[in-house]
Known about the structure:
Layout: H1 2-28, H2 42-59, H3 65-77, H4 91-126, H5 131-144, H6 148-159, H7 184-203, H8 206-222, H9 225-232, H10 237-248, H11 251-266, H12 269-274, H13 280-289, H14 293-321
Helix pairs in contact: 1-14, 4-5, 4-7, 4-8, 4-11, 5-8, 6-7, 8-10, 11-14, 13-14
Amino acid sequence: MLSYILRRIALMVPTLIGMTLMLFATARFAPGVTTGGGELGENAKQARQALEQRMRERLHLDKPLVTQYGLWLWDSIRGNYGESIQYNRPVSELIKERLPITITLNLISSIVVYLIAIPGGMLASIRRGKAFDVGWSLFTLALFSLPIIWVGDMLLAIFSNPESIFDWFPVSGSHATNTVWMTSVEYAKDFIWHITLPVICLSYGSFAYLSKIQRAAMLDNLGLDYVRTARAKGLPPRVVITRHVFRNSLLPMITIFAGILPSLLGGTVVVERIFSISGMGDLVVTATTARDLPIVEGVTFIISVISLFSLLVADLCYMAADPRVSFD
C-alpha cells in the first residue's frame, strides 16, 4: 500500500508539470486586457497604461517565457498566487474569503444527492420493471431535463416573491446583513435559511444521473453467481442486498465522487450568479472577464492539484470497498 502511494505521488510530478504548462500557456497567450473600441480619452489611456504596468510587474511579463513559467510555478507551489490586478489584494486572501461558502454549498448538495440518489437507485434495481422503478426513472429524468437557470428563476419567483403566498426565503446572499448581534444558533439558522434554495438548485439535476448509475451497478451484481450462492445459503434478502450487492456496486459511485472533489473549489457559477452568492465561481468569472490572470491561474492551479489527489483517494477507496482490488 505504502509503495503504491509513493509511486503514485512520484507520477503526479510530471503530470502536474504538464497540466501547469497547459494552464500557463493558455493564460499567457489569451487576449490581453481590452478597453473597448473607439478613441480613448486621456484618463482612459493613463488607466490602461497603469494597468498594463501592474500586469508586467506582477506577471513578470518583461522576462522570457521560460523564466515566467518557472517563477510562477515556484510561487504557486509555495502558496503564493500573486496579487490580484482587479482587487489589488493577494489572491490567497480572496480565495480564503470565497472558499468557505462554495465548499459548504457543494458539500451539502453532494450529501443530499447521495442520500437520495443511492437509495432510489437501489430500490429501482430491486423492483426492476415495477411501478416504483418506472416512476422513479421518469421523475428523475424530468428533473434532469430542467435547465438550471429556469429552475433558479422559478424558485425565486415562487419562494422569494413578496407577492407570492410562499414568500419563505430571501432573494440573495448567504447571510442577512445584520448578523453581528446574532447568537451561534441564530447565525446557523439564518445561514440555512439563505442557502436552502441554492442547495435545491444545485442538487436536483444530479438525482437522475447518480440513481441510474447506482441502479445499473446493482443490476450487474444481482445477476452474478455470488448472489445466487448467498441466496441458496438462506441469507435474508436484506443481508444479501446491503452487505454484498451494495458494497460491490460502490465502485462507480466512488469514481464519480472523485470528480466531485475538484468542483468543491471551482463552485457553481450559474447558481452563485442567480442567488448573488459571493463564492469561488463568481470570483473566477469576474476575474476571467477582467483578464485578472493571477486569480485565474491561482484557482486553476489549486483545482489541478486537488484533481490529482482526488484520483489517488478514489483508488484507495476502491481497495476499501472491494478487497479484491489490489495495486501491488
